[in-house]
Amino acid sequence: FPSYFTVIMLLSRLMAFIGIPKNDDVLSSNLEDLDIGSKLSRGPSAIASSSQDFGLIVKSVPQAVLFPSSPQDIASLLKSNYNSSAPFTVAARGNSHSVRGQAMAKNGVVVDMTWLNKNPNKIGIRISNDGKYADVGGQQLWIDVLNVTLRSGLSPVSWTDYLYLTVGGTLSNAGISGQTFRYGPQISNVYEMDVITGKGDFVTCSPNNNSDLFFAVLGGLGQFGIITRARIPLETAPKRVKWIRMFYSDFTAFSRDQELLISKNERADKNALNYVEGSLLLNQGSLENFRSTFFPPQDQPKIIALITKYGIVYSLEIVKYYYDDQTNATVDKDLQQQLQGLTYLPGFLFEKGVSYVEFLNRVRSEELKLRSKGLWDVPHPWLNLFIPKSRMTDFNHGVFKGIVLQRKITIGPLLVYPMNRNKWDDRMSASIPDEEIFYTVGFLLASGFDNWQAFDDQNKAVLRFCEKAGIEVKQYLPHYTTKEDWITHFGSKWNAFQQRKQQFDPKFLLSPGQSIFNSNS
Ligand code: FAD
């Protein structure tokens, strides 16, 4: 029989191999002595799921995962960790839809935020008596916020394209979609938050109360604290929407029309559009990648012929909501006015009327389709950029018509749409270009497990092109690997960002996966 020591050694090798940390790693931090010790798991499935994300590119193994029953559990973990002589890093994990390990904590502790929902007394989704806002747990998915508020005929106004993301996760980035030009990003639509800082302090903050923490956290990439509650403004929910896509062969005409449409952006203006986006259609012989369910099957051959002719077709997408007092006819009349003077290709305007929920939850049907083909849980080497309007022509020329057409790596949607800077509050941590109008471009690529590097090489080529051409892009959902890049990213906000880090997380413990103050490799 093997000796006791041999068995222990073999067991420890096996544990290391399957990713279970050794006991002494955790014990060194006295985790087991905490009153939340019983809520920490080092089980293989907890560790495995916290070691990866939607991107399926990065793997970082934590020592343990906290399954909190309440925000107090999180505060307790952060407080004792902060006071410990050997603190570990901690990452909140929302729905883990980051693509580069941003919600991971190598050798640290991952806080599984969604576990909070198992507590019947959780911070759920509570609408105020006057219906002006909802108090929402940081772990809540936006789809649930939508479903609950709709029951009272209400809804938040600023969205992401995809709704299976947590409130805390999108508020740590920005939360953008076609509504941003008019309502601002999701981080511009928060009245108040409860945040547990890196020191373990539980703080309620708003623009007038602990405002430093409030603005730090919005777009703060999880660096300053863990959001456990956010107060989100609500408005009357529309019942239905009119949804239109128009095609262009010329980028100048496409972007001129997009910019014209987003110039009418008063929040209270009932005539303004509610959503403006855009995307590229590239020559792939089919419409599979382009949310094709939108286009009537009988029109698909002519669309494919158009793309084949031009190589790239630009698709402008708009939506107008309608409320109880509006009919199909009045909305159509309204839209006719908006469309006047636009220069899309004749015969290439497609429209449909759908329910508000069907529109907002549109990416879910794409997800289910991809899942059924085994194409959802694959690597996602995404690149999301913010680009100043003044350089979009150069970007179109060098990237869309250059790199993208040459390399032909286009599996996944390629989004392009403008936003207004004045809808963003400069006190927030989120970093955006200096110009009044800037574009977001999203290369939402999906690759195979053995070829994601080739996709990533295309991303690198895009970034190199921008650098060479002097186009000052900012990454959205940023992934930088050097301090210099982070300093450049935050630009004039870097000093404040650093000072706020010193104030709220001086030991650099939170969200190490962002690799801003710690290296997660
Ligand atoms: P996670 O990936 O779990 O976490 C992201 C970061 O936030 C991490 O640093 C984490 O530590 C931190 N964090 C998480 N929860 C909290 C909390 N409660 N408090 C403090 N920090 C926290 N983004 C858009 O803006 N618009 C879109 O249209 C859009 N569409 C998307 C579609 C898909 C299919 C996917 C996969 C992503 C999309 N995203 C979009 C990106 C998405 O908003 C971000 O990846 C977001 O971070 C995901 O939320 P999450 O809850 O999964 O966060």
TrEMBL record:
InterPro entries: Cytok_DH_C_sf, Cytokinin_DH_FAD/cytokin-bd, FAD-bd_PCMH, FAD-bd_PCMH-like_sf, FAD-bd_PCMH_sub1, FAD-bd_PCMH_sub2, FAD-linked_Oxase-like_C, FAD-linked_Oxidoreductases_BP
Chain ranges passing through the membrane: none
Domain (FAD-binding PCMH-type): residue spans on this chain: 58-237
Swiss-Prot/TrEMBL cofactor(s): FAD
GO molecular function, one term: cytokinin dehydrogenase activity
Entry keyword set: FAD, Flavoprotein, Oxidoreductase, Signal
Signal peptide positions (record): 1-16
Catalytic reaction(s) noted: N(6)-dimethylallyladenine + A + H2O = 3-methyl-2-butenal + adenine + AH2
Enzyme Commission numbers on file: 1.5.99.12
GO biological process: cytokinin metabolic process
Entry-linked PROSITE patterns: FAD_PCMH
SUPFAM superfamilies in the record: FAD-binding/transporter-associated domain-like, FAD-linked oxidases, C-terminal domain
Enzyme class per UniProt: oxidoreductase
Family statement drawn from the similarity comment of this UniProt entry: Belongs to the oxygen-dependent FAD-linked oxidoreductase family.
PANTHER family linked to this entry: CYTOKININ DEHYDROGENASE 3 (PTHR13878:SF127), GULONOLACTONE OXIDASE (PTHR13878)
Name used for this protein in its record: cytokinin dehydrogenase
Native organism: Hibiscus syriacus (Rose of Sharon)
